[in-house]
Amino acid sequence: TGNAAPLLPVVGHDTLVPLVDGRQVAYSNLDVAASAPALESVAERVAETLPLYASVHRGAGYLSQVSTALYEASRRAIGEFVGARDDDLTLVTRNTTDSLNLLAGCVPTDPDTGAAGRVLVLDVEHHANLLPWQRDTDATVLTGAASVAGTLAQVRDELAAAVAENRPYALLAVTGASNVTGESLPLAELVATAHEHGARIVLDGAQLVPHRRISLADTGVDYLAFSGHKTYAPYGAGALVGRRDWLDAGTPYLAGGGAVRRVRADRTDWHDGPARHEAGSPNVIGAVALAAACEALAALDPAEVRAHEGALRGRLVDGLEAIDRVSVVRVWADAVDPVGVVTFTVAGYDPGLVAAYLSAEHGIGVRDGRFCAHPLLGRLGFDAGAVRASVGVGTAGEEVDRLVAAVRALVTDGPQARYDVVDGLWVV
Ligand code: PMP
User: Fold this and answer.
1) What is the whole-number distance in angstroms between the Cα of residue 34 and the centre of ligand 1?
2) Each residue of 266-275: pLDDT tens digit?
């Protein structure tokens, strides 16, 4: 309990929204795992930069030079934030999905047979860290490890046994933190296992980077993907950071201007480095916003972030579990230190109704559904979905209390308005 004020101010916290009963309340965003509101410092940096942008890497004009410098400085700041090594590349992408698709196109094929590279992945992953491997590589999806009431020790052993097979894997693709439960895998052990068997490891950092400091140099993680819009930066920018050799050898992700040294009618000489995969005019403002968010997070004490978010998570889980008919979803019994992502169900109420009720009667935004993780939700027995609330550096304790009180009111009094399903969506 206590006030638990946000660690950093975000925009939109004072936006008033109308409730069904005509009252207006300050909107409460407990959905940072889907998209986090921008930090005020990020909004300021964007406003300062808007008058300055012009064509990047192309124009000789003064503003083009300023824009190019801003874009490249942003790239460096993003890489630095995640501990990029000297020979790593930092690519500015659209988001985590884009980053992982890009990397999937760069997993080396077998030099002897030309067969697609082998990738090992668990079925607990967000679709963004599953479908690119399924579609573009020779992927093995491990299904046994993440069984209900399983343990991380089992997962680690299953992964280790699979990686040790005779036909080597090129890559192990794992989540940094689950977008359903906030739980993390034992990273150091997985990196060691992958490297011991000549495989690389890519971390889906979409839910990790906004909440924990992660360093490629310190952990040995080979590739990291994350999204600006979950890291308190608006606009469609994300990043892929990691080992240069695969990226320089891979097929350019986008074909077009900026990715080439020389084009003739019959052949093209592609760049290496970031430009190879970043054809077309880049998202300068998105990169600037993401870099500003990285700088703001870097200036916080990681222990303070962990304590703030951990306290909010605890308050949320304890509050929800004290309510009859509410259960909180967990995957691994021995998971430690989950990030602030909490998925729950309310027995007797469709998750879509719970989310519509929270919005219409309490002005609280949460996510419902299957969270782009159909295999995991199915395994957990939630084919009809669940409700997810998530907290970050911009969330206050009072917002968590409001959510818990609202769910308690639902269970004790039922919804006050009438809800129907229209085109698959619950509406008042
Ligand atoms: N991975 C995880 C774990 C996620 O939570 C998300 C977003 N829900 C993604 C990947 C995809 O991120 P984006 O939509 O920004 O590409």
Assistant:
1) 8
2) 999 999 999 9
Residues 208 and 309 in one domain: no
pTM: 0.96
Indicate the residue among 298, 314, 347 that finishes a domain.
298
Q: 190 and 334: one domain?
A: no
Specify if 35 maps to a domain. Answer: no
Is the CB–ligand 1 distance for residue 99 below 6 Å?
A: no
Q: Largest Cα–Cα distance of the chain, in whole Å?
A: 72
pLDDT for residue 148 is more than 70: no
Residue 99 alpha carbon, nearest atom of ligand 1: 16
pLDDT at 333: 86
Q: Is 96 in the pocket of ligand 1 (CB under 6 A)?
A: yes
Q: Exposure of 23 by Cβ count < 10 A (0-12 exposed, 13-18 middle, 19+ buried)?
A: exposed
| Catalytic machinery residues | 372
Q: Tell the residue nearest (CA) to atom 5 of ligand 1.
A: 179
Residues 152 and 267 in one domain: yes
My answer on whether 306 and 198 are in the same domain is: no
Asked if residue 327 is part of any domain, the answer here is yes
- The tens digit of pLDDT for each residue in 69-81 reads 999 999 999 999 9
Asked if residue 151 belongs to a domain, the reply is yes
Q: The complex's ipTM?
A: 0.99
Name the residue of 207, 224, 226 whose CB sits within 8 Å of the most ligand 1 atoms, as the mutation to test its pocket: 207
Region 59-75: mean pLDDT is 93
Per-residue confidence (pLDDT) for residue 149, from 0 to 100: 57
Instruction: Kindly state the average pLDDT of the residues 217-243.
Output: 97
Handedness of CA 181, 382, 331, 193 (dihedral sign): negative
Enumerate residues 6+ apart whose C-beta is below 8 A from 121.
Answer: 129, 130, 133, 139, 140, 141, 142, 172, 173, 174
240 and 322 share one domain: no
Q: Is residue 196 part of a domain?
A: yes
- 131, containing H or E segment: helix 131-136
Same domain, 354 and 289: no
184 ligand 1 Cβ < 6 A: no
Task: Determine whether the shortest distance from the Cβ of 97 to ligand 1 is under 6 A.
Answer: yes
Q: Note down the domain range covering 341.
A: 16-30+302-427
